[in-house]
Amino acid sequence: MNLPRPNRDYIPAIGLGVTQIMGYGTLMYAYAVLLPEMARDLGLTLSEVFGILSLGLFFGGLVSPIAGKLVDHCGGRWVMTLGSIVASLALMAMSQIEGRIGLFVLILVAEGAGMFVLYNVAFASVARLDLGVPPQRSISVITLFGGVASTIFWPLTLALFNWYGWETTWVILGFSALLICTPIHFFVLRGPEREADAPKPDNAPDWPELTGHLRKQAMLWMVVSFVFSGYLMGAVMTLWVTNVQDLGHTAAMAAFAGAVIGPFKTVGRFFEMLVSRSMYPLVTYALSLGLMFSGFVVLLIFGFTLTGLLLAAALYGMGDGIKTIARGTLPLALFGTKGYGARLGWISFVQMGINASAPFAFAWTTQTYGGWWSFAVMALCLCCAIATYMFIPDPRTHRHDPAQNRRLPENI
């Protein structure tokens, strides 16, 4: 069946959206359920297993610029296809772990390969394709799907563990990722690609790019804000269940509340899609930070109750869902499409290099002071993200700024 051109143009984003569900579900969310159980069986502490995960995330940050440059030079098809194969095999091999060294090696491999298949590479891959829809729209579609990863994989992983144990669960998760993600990456990323210096499509938003000293200033404060707002992301994905249990809820209720985050990520992203043609990415990012912070305020005050817990999960989910879009569209709006993949890679390198310590730091905080204080520190991180956001210059207010003419190298 021959689909109309507009419908065909959305196929890559839809396919990559499906693979992001699998990617984040298996490479991020499954750890929250399985690592504490693995620690118990392997004779490790909670801090040790999440410290190993932190090292894996740090290694992922190191290889992220390489993945971005590869997409810029040769497109995302082979990058994402091979990445999904390696990540899936590493997940299946997790079933054979017998000690901390095996856990360390396989998490390093899995998280390194994950940088070749998760959001940043997916965003850069669709931005390279010559489609009839602007990259910003494709990015929104991809994240719209990815929002349900926690909804599916927290309860699913818990159920698989209860039925089969963590060894078989890793085999099931890894084989499912291999079976689903590899062919999708191979087939949906075929087709013509845009040249790096090609003019903007007619239907692309009229977003002026920053140049001159403002370009460097924007990169600095945007990355600092991303670091603060992203520092709690890995901790929420991996410690949500543990921290919520510490507030007095059961593991099943903690997993259920975590599952609520996913649908509200989708709600937030659907709202962003409806207004994305009129909402500038700086506004999108500010909205996301406000919603996430509101969620933590509710969690800290009312999180001991079921209603408060679910409301907090909903607010945080909406904010985090919108933030994922802003993480892809804000660098595109401020700096343009040239070198976009490498730029996302370097941003990820800085962000993940720092944020890799988050699972260990928050696991230590939970272990030492309790889940409430762990959530309180996460809220403080968001306060810092909001404060540094205020220093990001808005290109729309500097269209006729003479300083814009003092241009800096475009690879910033």
Automatic annotation (TrEMBL):
Record's keyword terms, sorted: Membrane, Plasmid, Transmembrane, Transmembrane helix, Transport
Subcellular location: Membrane
GO cellular component term, pick one: membrane
GO molecular function, one term: transmembrane transporter activity
Membrane-spanning intervals of the chain: 12-32, 44-66, 78-97, 103-127, 139-164, 170-189, 218-241, 247-267, 279-302, 346-365, 371-392
Provenance organism: Pseudosulfitobacter pseudonitzschiae
Topology versus the membrane: Multi-pass membrane protein
Organism placement in taxonomy: Bacteria, Pseudomonadati, Pseudomonadota, Alphaproteobacteria, Rhodobacterales
Record's protein name: Multidrug efflux system protein MdtL
